[in-house]
Design a protein that fits this description.
By secondary structure, this protein is of the alpha+beta class. It has ten helices and five strands, in the order H-H-H-H-H-E-E-H-E-H-H-E-H-E-H. The longest helix is centred in the C-terminal third of the chain and has 23 residues, at 205-227. The protein folds into two domains: 1-43, no CATH class; 51-227, 2-Layer Sandwich (Beta-Lactamase), CATH 3.30.450. It is globular. It has helices at 7-15, 26-29, 31-43, 53-72, 75-89, 128-136, 145-148, 154-160, 175-180, 205-227, and strands at 94-99, 106-112, 140-142, 164-171, 191-199. The chain has a five-stranded antiparallel beta sheet, sandwiched between helices. Helix 4 (53-72) packs antiparallel against helix 5, helix 4 packs parallel to helix 10 and helix 5 (75-89) packs antiparallel against helix 10.
């Protein structure tokens, strides 16, 4: 916190481990925005050990972009920008964000290759890999859905040459909920969304760890915007 963050002050603060700078008057003028900014910083401040420089840079860029998007964009635009950045930085050839409901899923965002034209959104709920994810409440990935048969619209993926797949559940919790539960997903938190990703080259375990954490943590912000609509 500072009333006038000079370059000298910022450099000294960075050396001491500061992550962000918030002007003092904002605590009085916009306390809610300050609280939200701090919470966003907390939930996106995670470490995956032994990352390559590229993966670490990707993680940092997505978090920074998300922080900027949250200042001015609404639910749908933030979702689109988040998906676009994930697709670009992690070289995803298909990404789709599904909003889940009891009746059927709703496809909100697609990046890269499209879902099959004859694919009924309700069919997602019949996919074995999706049902396993809902039951386990954990992200999954496989690098050969052709052999394992653990994938979504497998035949279309075969045609497009996309054997590697990752899926991540998104929970109906805000940043506050996650922080108050010691950065763990509450056991009874509903799943509100599903992020499906496919590409031609394999996913490493480090990539899976970074991508899944980014989605789970950033989805708390996306859910907050959805609730506010």
């Amino acid at each position: 916190m500072t009333s006038l963050p000079t370059l000298e002050k910022e450099q000294k603060a960075m050396e001491l481990g500061a992550k962000d700078f918030i002007q003092k008057d904002l605590f009085h003028e916009k306390p809610q925005e300050v609280a939200e900014r701090i919470e966003m910083k907390l939930v996106t401040n995670f470490v995956v050990p032994d990352l390559s420089k590229k993966l670490a840079a990707n993680q940092k860029e997505i978090v920074q972009d998300m922080m900027v998007s949250m200042e001015t964009m609404d639910f749908l635009n933030v979702s689109q920008e988040f998906c676009r950045q994930l697709g670009k930085l992690f070289e995803l050839e298909h990404l789709s964000f599904w909003k889940l409901s009891k009746d059927k899923p709703h496809l909100l965002v697609t990046v890269g290759s499209r879902i099959p034209e004859n694919y009924n959104p309700a069919d997602l709920y019949t996919e074995l890999v999706f049902r396993k994810m809902i039951k386990s409440r954990k992200p999954y990935f496989t690098n050969n859905i052709y052999n394992t048969k653990q994938g979504v619209f497998i035949e279309r993926s075969r045609e497009d040459g996309l054997p590697a797949e990752m899926g991540v559940p998104m929970f109906a919790i805000t940043e506050s909920d996650l922080i108050n539960n010691h950065m763990k997903i509450p056991e009874k938190a509903p799943i509100f969304g599903y992020m499906l990703m496919k590409r031609s080259k394999v996913f490493s375990t480090k990539e899976h760890a970074v991508i899944s954490k980014l989605i789970v943590r950033c989805s708390t912000m996306i859910w907050r915007l959805y609730k506010a609509m």
